[in-house]
Write the structure tokens for this entry.
Amino acid sequence: MTRIAVVGTGAVGASIAAWLIAAPEHAVTLCARTPFARLRVETPEGVLESTPRLLTDPANAAPVDWVLVVTKTYDAPGAQAWLDRLVGPDTNVAILQNGVEHRDRFPALDPSRTVPVIVDIPAERRAPGDVVQRRNGSLTVPDDAAGRAFAALFAHSPIDTILTDDWLTAAWRKLAVNCAGAVNALTLQPAGIARDAEAADLMRALIRECIAVGRAEGATLPDDLPDSIVDGYRAAPADSINSIHADRLAGRPTEADARNGVIARLGARHGIDAPLNRMADVVLRKNGPDN
């Protein structure tokens, strides 16, 4: 029996947890702020329902075989409180978050036992423990021993676990998609805004900044990436809402730093200016619930 703790039960965390619970060889504990009695996830394969073991206080946690951190990037300190109790000498930790700084957010972890995970699982939370997973999606991890062990946790599920020998490039490609989503959050308009020529041009400009910094960091990113990403936004349902847009609508903090600010911050190391991403980060943060 593999003991697994899932820290964070938002839309993605709940979806991940539901699939893990579906495997009888897993003993899954959910670590959350808000308690709920039932976990219900509508997936493309059907509804997954369970009565999970749930903890709301890190003091009640004990070491497990795997910890999956599925919190927002700005919740890293809160996740660390759980890690302090859940991680033992043989524990592996997977970090399922946005951005390109997965391991940097948890410097105390053993890098050889830490798996950075790129998540592409569209899902929406309707209430605590009640989620709609729109697509089976994918989880991309480095093709190393820890990454392969992580992928094995989902062997029973339809989630596509992708092993890559160039995780850096995969992460920057995902960041290019995410940074363009600032246009949705700033305008409070869903994916259909990409069909507007001026909005699409702004998305492309944000992505071009991301490409320049990503290449300086060592990622391999094609020149046509801005067009292909905008085409992807245009192909999505016009009313679909990305996570940073949803957070702003709900009055929650946003991941602006991990999705836009990081491009400006890392660009400064290389003497590359990224004014549009810096602007997006500042405006989104200044319009947050604490301002």
Notes: DSSP finds ten helices and twelve strands in the chain. The chain has a mean pLDDT of 95. Residues 249 and 255 are 13 Å apart (CA to CA).
